[in-house]
Amino acid sequence: MTAPPAAHLISRERRKELACQLFLEAGMVALSGGDMQPIVYIRNEEFADAVSVRAKTTELRNLLDRVDEMADRVFADHEGRS
User: b vs e for 15-27, b when ≥16 Cβ sit within 10 Å of the residue's Cβ?
Assistant: First the structure.
């Protein structure tokens, strides 16, 4: 009887909480034994290669850039009214 693969390495690189709610978590999981490839995860999405991870992190960076732009407009407008 072969033992099931065991969690060999789990790493939570980034974990950010906002108001007691999980906002973003990223890490990796590699299993010893078995055929499962290591994965990197961002929140609840798993990625099996670096290209896919980079596509997702680019998407997240673009979203945060848009949030920065929105904040600049909102606060500039508010300051202009004061």
Answer: eeeeeeeeeeebe
